[in-house]
Amino acid sequence: MSSKRAGSREWTGLAVLALPTLLLSLDQSVLFLALPPWPRRCGPAARRPCGSWTSTGS
Fold first, then answer.
1. What is the torsion angle, in degrees rounded to the nearest 10, for the CA atoms of residue 19, residue 22, residue 26 and residue 29?
2. What DSSP character marks residue 52?
3. Cα distance between residue 46 and residue 40, in whole Å
4. What 8-state DSSP symbol labels residue 51?
5. Are 41 and 50 in contact, with CB atoms under 8 Å apart?
6. Could you tell me the CA-to-CA distances from 46 to 33, 42, 49, 50, 52 in Å, in that order?
7. Looking at residues 13-31, what average pLDDT do you find?
8. Would you say 41 and 53 are in contact if contact means Cβ atoms under 8 Å apart?
9. For residue range 1-11, what is the model confidence (pLDDT) as tens digits?
10. Is 42:50 a contact under the CB 8 Å cutoff?
11. Residue-wise burial string across 11-44, b where 16 or more C-beta atoms lie within 10 A, e elsewhere
């Protein structure tokens, strides 16, 4: 078994696989931090419904 060092093609392949994983984990962490306050602001006692700024598609 020969021990070869990784070339530029292997490092590029690793970057292609790691970058989407990094972006997905970053997106999930942002959602995890941003969404918990919404039920407090958008609950039944909220003065203004949070859905008023979103499109319902109808």
1. 160
2. G
3. 8
4. G
5. yes
6. 20, 5, 6, 8, 12
7. 91
8. no
9. 667 898 999 99
10. yes
11. eeeeeeeeeeeeeeeeeeeeeeeeeeeeeeeeee
